[in-house]
Amino acid sequence: MALIVQKYGGTSVGNPDRIKNVARRVAQYRAAGDQIVVVVSAMSGVTDGLIRLSKEITALPSEREMDMLLATGEQQTIALTAIALHSLNVDAVSLTGAQAGIVTDGVHTKAKIQNITPREVHKLLDAGNVVIVAGFQGQTAEGAITTLGRGGSDLTAIALAAALKADLCQIYTDVDGIYTADPRIVPGAQKLPEIAYDELLELAGAGAKVMQLRSVEFAKKFNVIFEVRSSLNENPGTIVKEETTSMEDVVVRGVSLDKNQAKITLFGVPDQPGRAAGIFRALADAAINVDMIVQNASHDGGVRVTDLSFTVDKPDLLKASKVIESLRPTIGFKEAESNENIGKVSVVGVGMRSHSGVAAKMFDVLAHEQVNIDMISTSEIKVSVVIDLAKGETALRALHKAFLE
Amino acid sequence: MALIVQKYGGTSVGNPDRIKNVARRVAQYRAAGDQIVVVVSAMSGVTDGLIRLSKEITALPSEREMDMLLATGEQQTIALTAIALHSLNVDAVSLTGAQAGIVTDGVHTKAKIQNITPREVHKLLDAGNVVIVAGFQGQTAEGAITTLGRGGSDLTAIALAAALKADLCQIYTDVDGIYTADPRIVPGAQKLPEIAYDELLELAGAGAKVMQLRSVEFAKKFNVIFEVRSSLNENPGTIVKEETTSMEDVVVRGVSLDKNQAKITLFGVPDQPGRAAGIFRALADAAINVDMIVQNASHDGGVRVTDLSFTVDKPDLLKASKVIESLRPTIGFKEAESNENIGKVSVVGVGMRSHSGVAAKMFDVLAHEQVNIDMISTSEIKVSVVIDLAKGETALRALHKAFLE
What we know:
The structure is a homodimer. By secondary structure, chain A is α/β, with parallel strands linked by helices. Chain A contains eleven helices and 21 strands.
């Protein structure tokens, strides 16, 4: 008898019929004799509808009250899922995040899980129930309702799997698993049978929108093995786990294209200690996430100066440009330039650690496709380049062909 | 500085604009320096929508899970009401029933309040907040979410007013208060400045749909004085309180017409001890509520037999008829007859206790209108008669004119 945690996203529980489908799948697993904990999101559209209601009242609602409001979405789904299981003669009990013992800090709308006391979950499982837990939510030690922010339901499932020492954690979604590249762009993309946490982190960070980074980071930290699979069919998905030696046989696990970055370049920054720190501290204070940073070798221009480029999320570009402009007197750069028409192409794989020449091969492939490289950034298991947005998909396909087909 | 509990029903908080109106009214009271606790229902339509979703899954959802589902309706309203108060720069905090310390028994969908520990409410009030509490809900001592059934939000307000020793409890609704008769039927109906608990109980029991009996019973038991008034204007409403001697100066406080009753008559019931008990125990076991019971004097028919009439709620008639038919062998009555075309007309007033002749005057008025009386039932402060449904409104108007104009 195994203990399985299954998580179903908003599309999978989007209406009563889909909730009945989820219940049928859960009932199958239950009939095989396993203990099942189900984590569900709000029905798709419910959360957006609640946000719209709040915006009709005020543009800037309090975060505590938004948590109180939004937590009702998942609470509705757990009740309906329990009702659907009952109609299949499966014993089931729903629990809110608070009732399931999920304790968070008090940072409303993006709370962090502090600990989980799964006493009630264990008790109900041992009594023969499927236990259905509201994703995305918890409560503070003082009893205030909190939500975990984007990707919160995945996090609930993975954290519960860790706390319950579950044998298996399945993240059901509307795709079949994790692919070597986005199949909408690369027709030859293949589903991966398994992938290392670090590879998934690099791919997610490189724009592959499978899961939020924090859930994968949590899983890595607590060594929770999970499977990403589809709620629409019975196909096996992709197992995400700690790196194994056999994974190194594959040099590149996947390639990705991130179209959501913009680039800012500062020309003529005086090459003195503290200038770069001043720039990135100001951006961090404005809650702007900086991804790639490249600084060219300094050159002479009266005093020694250098050029500095970095990328930010496209929606943050305007805000970032304003921060940069406000720094001109203190930093003393000559000129700032921004460019939204860029794409970031990455190749990812733990096998790179023991194989040299990945970057060289990547640049060869891009040169052969007449793609000009604008910025380069590397990690132990990833090489990313910034290129012209218009060449993004061509570059992705060429890299997939060269490394993965 | 007074402590005021205000309750707003589903229509009063039916959309974001109405919630803003409620917030403006609350802000006015708060600006006068009073401490305010606001109890709200679900936005009108929300509860019905959730019930519809559950019915799409199964016809008979579990009551525990229906409580989990429906409790979200009020939770959404408290959050939106708090957000609306913030936008008026009024400090406000929302609390679910559980967070407000409302502990109930475990009878899901119609739980009874066992006790209220308003520590959190007091703490938040003392810190300068308006406290917004979700009506209709509580939790068991074990932490399961419960709902209080029909009229539950009124009950939450009155029970909180008792627990907080509030100076004033206001029940805001879409009517101006309690009237001498239904103004849609009787054009001369007047709003009552005050009414005794017992009178309101008899009027509610007699079909006037102002408030559920249990909320009024609770208020009477704990001597909570409350005001029924409109959320759409500033008119004073009706104060509901313990009977005072001055109330006896008015013989009849109000008249009502209940069109929702049906009558069953059993002819030729053997006049032996235990026969009536057998009938009404069987009906009670089937959860059928019996209102009026009339037994005629027995007469000779071989053995001595009697005729027995009683009324039930119209939707229960079919079920009641089946129960009665199943009793024929054991009870041994000759014939059963049912009639849906009846109306119950009642006159109510604590002044009746010290004034004789109310019944006689009532029968005179009805005779003058050519209304035939079918059944009669009296209490200390009420006389009810069953008549032909078609004559109901005529009778009500005539009685209002004779007693109240």
